[in-house]
Design goal:
The protein is α+β, with helices and mostly antiparallel strands. 35% of the residues lie in helices and 15% in strands.
Length: 159
């Protein structure tokens, strides 16, 4: 297992991977021992570009353990464009699972690849910020950052 860290405007990010796939990107994990690998350093570079406003998507191999449904949700999250958050209801309709809003929200909450699998781009139906494992203040920061990158006016962000 390889591990790199990255200081960001929203706190310390922990990046963990095997030699083949990224397994974890998260915040403030206790007792982190850095052991950088090629992939964690490549992910770190791309995340630095993201925080500088030069990137909104990523091109490295990802791996998350989960059910078939959770993996389907995570794959849909990757398709949500930066600067265009959608509601859980909209996501459930895109997935042809209009009654699965709670299951989608649960899968979203189990995402272990913050930012890269952009669970922060899913908001409440009323435009409110709801649920984010990293804290709502980080979710708000990420959405506002992406709106700036994509030149989306603050008026379109309702929170």
């Amino acid at each position: 297992m390889f591990c790199s860290t990255l200081n960001t405007p929203i706190g310390l990010l922990i990046i963990k991977a095997t030699a083949e796939s990224l397994l974890f990107i998260g915040y403030d994990v206790d007792d982190v021992e850095e052991n950088p690998g090629d992939l964690t350093e490549y992910a770190k570079f791309q995340l630095q570009e993201y925080f500088k406003g030069k990137r909104t998507s990523f091109d490295f191999s990802l791996e998350q353990e989960g059910t078939t449904f959770q993996k389907k949700v995570w794959n849909e999250l990757i398709k949500i464009p930066a600067g265009n958050p959608i509601s859980y209801t909209s996501l459930s309709k895109k997935m042809n699972s209009p009654l699965a809003i709670r299951a989608i929200a649960s899968a979203n909450g189990k995402n272990k690849l913050m930012i890269v699998v952009p669970c922060h781009r899913v908001i409440g139906s009323n435009g409110e910020l709801v649920g984010y494992a990293g804290g709502l203040w980080r979710k708000k920061w990420l959405l506002e950052h992406e709106a700036r990158i994509m030149n989306v006016g603050q008026a379109t962000l309702m929170f």
